## 1
Amino acid sequence: MADLPDYFDPDSLLARHWQQPLCDFAAPPAPAIEPVAAERHAIHAGLLMAIVAAWWNGNLRGSRDSDYPSRVHQRRADGTYLGDRLGDRYLGHNIAALAVDRTGRVRDVDFNHNTIYASTVQHAEARLIRRLFDIDALDQSRHPRDEDVHVARTRLDGVTIFTSLESCAQCSGIMALSCLPKVFYLQPDPSQYLVAQLMHRLSDAPAAQHVPASAFGFPAFDQLKAAYAHFQRELAEGGYFWRSTTDPQRIAREPEITAFLCTDAARDIYQQAADDFQRMSCRFPHARPGADMAPASAAAAQDVLTNQEVLEDARQFLAYAATAARRGTPHFN
């Protein structure tokens, strides 16, 4: 076995785990989550899926002159497919991230916009983190809390992120630099090789802990995992995701998770979660989080929402996000 490079501290976490089998290290058991906290997490996970459902767009390879056999329920009578509200453009992947502060209030949401900006760095989590720092900088400039109004915040340690898809290396790194404590993801992504979890386990200054939504009993996690596995099998057995109706030689068979997130199967799961969110009622309406989620000071604790207030705040945010928020960017709707 290769030796640890000599520039690493021999007492670092990486050094201590260097010879440990990957299978024992990469996927630790999910943390226990007490029922009051689980209900709060389910509210925000449902909100995120409702926002994605409201802005659903599956036209990954265009709408006109296209055949998507896994999108028959999104097809219009004229043969084109449902997409954005102004036509048939593709505005980005159905992948989004939501930020919640320590009180339980929603801070903001953003989508993956690689396609809009023709850039691979426009992932939902990365965009959201940048937006949160911009919001904080504006707030500090308008309402100074320090003698120097130009003091920049470098930490988001009071924020929890909910992301619809397990984070990539880029987003995991950005979230680690921002000192986020925890990220909940609603669907696993095997193409990311558990990088976020590995980063958390190996960081001496801990990167965000990435927790599957199954840890708080969110049913869409297993539903999306199973539906994606079925999509992969269909393509492996000779199916295709997309084919040009004008040039049959142009065909897409790759079982990418971004393609799956355009399908009727994925849309149905998101819409069911959105419907469940709208019907949701709290088992613990007057409860506030336990010690594992509570703010550090008694003064801050006074601002913490009850679970019922969290649900009301989330529904108000959905009304905003489904209309005025314009899918995370002011340039497209």
## 2
Amino acid sequence: MSSRSSHVPRIAYLVKWVERSLRLRLDEVLAPCEISTPDYTALSVLRERDGLSSAQLARRVCVTPQAMNQIVIGLERRGLIRRRSGTHGRMMSASLTVKGMELLALGDRATLPVEERMLSGLSRAEIGVLRRALSSCVASLRERGVRGEETGTILGRARRRKEGAAAARLVD
């Protein structure tokens, strides 16, 4: 038996596999609703935080500002959100429309069984522990980057992308 087979998988590796598997399942169940997973996520975020800018949405949905701009344009064209001038220069804030809320409710019903399946092997107490642990991990990673740099800086984001690409090559 090789020593390699006795290694416990790294948490980061397991989180990536959960994220990837979850994304595939969400894409499948949201397709009949004619909405993508990033679209659904953006609508969900707007339900909780009305009036966000495209840049704020991008950070919360974990996509680039350029990708979010395309998502916002598409959602607005479909009448799922409306944008209005904000208080800061050219910033536009986004809000759900009635049509957007209806589609979001449809997406919620479609995605619920996926989440239930993912959590089916856990007790209610374990689900609570998992939620708190993951929330803590998110908060820790938002506070500072890997080397202590502020996560919002351009240099910090570029460094994380480069390090993330290198880590991905190691996993493959």
## 3
Amino acid sequence: MSARELLCAACLLASAFGASPRPAAAAERRDQVAPYLQALESHTLGDVEGRALGEPRRASGDPVPIAGVSVLLLPFSPEVEAKLDGIKTHLRDKMGTYIDANAEVVSVRTTYERELLSAGGGELIRGAVSDEAGNVRLSGVPIGDWIMLAWREDPHAVKGGRVPAKEAAKFPDIPVITGYAAVSYWRARLSVQTGEVTSLNLTDRGVWLTAVREEFSNSREVTKKGSDLKKRR
């Protein structure tokens, strides 16, 4: 997915989430984004660039580039930072909070994106995706402090996710887990300066939080897929 596609997806997702922020919050966001928009208009800009690198396959080998890491820059907000800190702090309080962590991070991010859009700061939602060499670059970023949030998913299938036809017929809408993805998040506070390049390092050792995104289907669909597979065999 290109940076433009990532930005468009973020805008569409934010627009789809219903209610607008309360008036006081909208006014606060407008005040917050004003300096960034002024820097954008006056071309007081910098760049952010770096690489996403995994652990070497051998002890003596070179780090392995990671393609497909989504990188998002959002104007710095102490409130958003505190919410993300809270998710990490309570990550392992109980199984439920661990399972819900990914959805909570997505909720914080999309809510903030929606508030930025409502405050006229849609141009400040900056996204990019690392290429095959692990390189990522965001050009023309207004000066100031930013929240960098990056993530990648490692999908896994779940074997045996089938429901007996009799049970599926009686309860066709039972949710059945069909897979999951381990989601690795990176997070940093970046300070962009005029005409300078701010370095960004995304490594396996620097992962901020690892969460899980589960994939579900209903029992009728799972049973149908299992029957289709038997027929092909």
## 4
Amino acid sequence: MIRRYFTVLLMLLLSMGLTSQLSALKVFELSSGVIVDPDNRMAYVMNAGGGIDAVDLKGGTLVWSTDQAAKPLTLVGNRLFCLSDPLTPESELKVVILDVGKRGQRVIANSVKLPQNVQVSINETLETSFTINARISGGAVFMPWKYSYQSVKGIEPQTDKSLQGQALSMPKAKPQTIGGTVRMEISSGAISIPKEKDLPAAVAHISRQLTLAESQRLPGIPGPQFLSADGRHVLKSECASDSRVWDKCRWEIYNRSTGKRVGEVRNHQSNAPFFVHGALVIYQTGPYVRRTQKGLVDEPLKIRAVDMNTGKELWSRTIRDTAYRGPFPG
């Protein structure tokens, strides 16, 4: 009777196309452009040069690198779904599938036209932003995307002496936003734009949850609690008020299912996207500028791995920073 029950359940999952979803839960996104496969102790990250690096989670060593694509979106089996970086912003979305079992060899590349007023670009600009992520449902990868545009203008020189000395503010235009979803078959790589009524509920754009709500908190632990990227751990942070101390925040990390404390590390941030891999806590940090005895240190965007037993950083790797950090019109 029990065997029959599980057989019926398995057939139901297969008919609903959920088996690939369940296996995909093992793979998660640490942050935009950083896909983690903990079972194979690998991370696939955007490198600063515009390609993708495969990084070993235990030692941070580079396993392979490719310039066949620019931004990893999700992993299904050995197939890494990635966004290609257009040389100039354009309305064509190009998706590349790499074989991680063959050191990032390109398997399939396909593209689809988005609305003409959309500019696909991995890097933000002063006025535009294009974001995309991936959800797996059945035999396809669904990629919800969003494009935002905002006109930014400088303030014209003021010649009226009666207004001299008054504070001038830049007028804020309301951002224009457009979005949609692209569907790509896992096996064939066929790409299309599905109708909204045909989208599974699981592919809706879900914002990253950071601070846990009251009903989701671990009991008996005061203060804000932050969820790990894979949902398996909870971070509690306490920060000292002494600005002379760089790593002034203490991260205590707990297993979410058992409530057991698994370790702690010191950090200059109150929280960051993180996950636990064995004795390591791996998290994203930067970019930032730090004043030291040797002068100013300019740290780029990185992922870092710290041993919770010793508190020592074991490895770090620079990743591509896509945020706009250029000048603003005056």
